[in-house]
Design goal:
The chain is mostly helical and about 120 residues long. The chain folds into two domains: about 45 residues; about 55 residues. It is built from five helices and no strands. It is extended. It starts with 5 loop residues before the first helix and ends in an 11-residue tail after the last helix.
């Protein structure tokens, strides 16, 4: 333990800064992707429905409930796979085996310029 326990304070500050940055970047993602989907959903409705919040609300609620449920299902699937791998081998080895997959998915989706996907 360091002088007056400042190492823990510095570590906590780094963790809070990381959480803030992840939230900030996640918000940018949400505006870019989810905002576009919600905008398209709203502008796809007839003009008469768009004029009333009460008439638009069921469509907005259906979108958000579907979004949350899909995240819950994806999280449950990934959590189940993680539990399965953790039961078969030490967690460290399971983590090392899973690390390449996000990069492969990112590469194949075309997020890296000129790679994978369709341009």
């Amino acid at each position: 333990m360091g002088v007056f326990g400042f190492e823990r304070v510095e570590q906590m500050a780094a963790e809070l800064l990381s959480a803030f940055l992840v939230g900030l970047l996640g918000g940018v993602h949400c505006v870019g992707m989810c905002g576009g989907i919600v905008g398209a959903l709203a502008f796809g409705l007839p003009e008469s429905l768009r004029q009333s919040l009460v008439k638009v609300l069921p469509f907005q609620l259906a979108y958000n409930v579907g979004r949350v449920v899909s995240y819950v299902i994806a999280g449950a699937i990934m959590g189940g796979l993680g539990m399965l791998l953790a039961g078969l081998m030490p967690v460290y080895y399971a983590q090392q085996g899973l690390w390449p997959w996000p990069a492969c998915l990112w590469y194949c989706s075309g997020c890296i310029s000129g790679a994978g996907g369709s341009d």
